[in-house]
Specification:
homodimer; 5 helices; Beta-carbonic Anhydrase, Chain A
């Protein structure tokens, strides 16, 4: 059985016991989280979020890419969130390569891609918080904070 | 107490009982999921994924944006995933506005932004699966499938 088949089998069991049909489309909490795709990060679990509680945006690194900004603007301006947590993490895969290495590995089609690698997770967290704060599409009262998640301990540390 | 303070308090309890220090940085399963930021979607829960099991990419709509493609390429080419599930969902916030409406609401700074709204979630799922399949940076043997998650039942339906 491949991983998709396993996931679909698990979903049947989830749906059989699902009882959150009334969760509203606007989040219960005014919270949007930006974090990495890393398989060790289960943000709803490590932040204590229930079904319907908060938006979660995820990309490689948890970077404030143009697309993450699009998602956060929609979250804040259309769906009312006002607190944004940027969460990078220890042992991130984005620390393990450079744009040059990725482009060499992937060939000509990758020439113009910025893979957004990271050299220091506290620095990247600070950068991405600054990018979101400076974006003119965000509401003026959006509170943006930066955190690092430790994959060895499950604990968040404040960065900014 | 604001939502961030509540999340940090919940994280302390999570870290106190955390026992996944040995989860590897490469996912246990060769699976990468692309889905929406919606607060009602807990993909690890509805797919039965444990800590360390699979990458999860999330943006507004679960769209195959350039940044989602960046994340999936890194997941597949650098971290070895070979199955990709694109999961859109019923009652998506992206069904509720147009680019024109969002630009009018947000003013001149939004003029050039494509918010990637959706008019039909099965159609958008098919489109985004096709975009990932056609991307020259993906491995040839990446299996991409498309699904719709029903927020009223917790159940996934196959689209493509």
């Amino acid at each position: 059985m491949n991983s998709v088949d396993q996931a679909i089998e698990a979903n049947r069991a989830y749906a059989d016991r699902f009882d959150m049909a009334d969760a509203p489309s606007r989040p219960n909490k005014p919270l949007v989280v930006l974090t990495c795709i890393d398989a060790r990060l289960h943000p709803e679990a490590f932040l204590g979020l229930g079904v319907g509680d908060a938006h979660v945006v995820r990309n490689a690194g948890g970077r404030a890419s143009d697309d993450a900004l699009r998602s956060i603007v929609i979250s804040a301006q259309i769906l009312g969130t006002r607190e944004c947590m940027v969460i990078h993490h220890t042992d991130c895969g984005m620390l393990t390569f450079t744009n040059e290495a990725a482009r060499e590995m992937l060939g000509p089609a990758a020439t113009d891609v910025d893979f957004m690698p990271i050299t220091d997770v506290e620095e990247s967290t600070r950068e991405d918080v600054a990018t979101i704060r400076a974006n003119p599409l965000m509401p003026d009262d959006l509170a943006v904070s930066g955190w690092v998640y430790d994959v060895k301990t499950g604990r968040l540390s404040s960065v900014v």
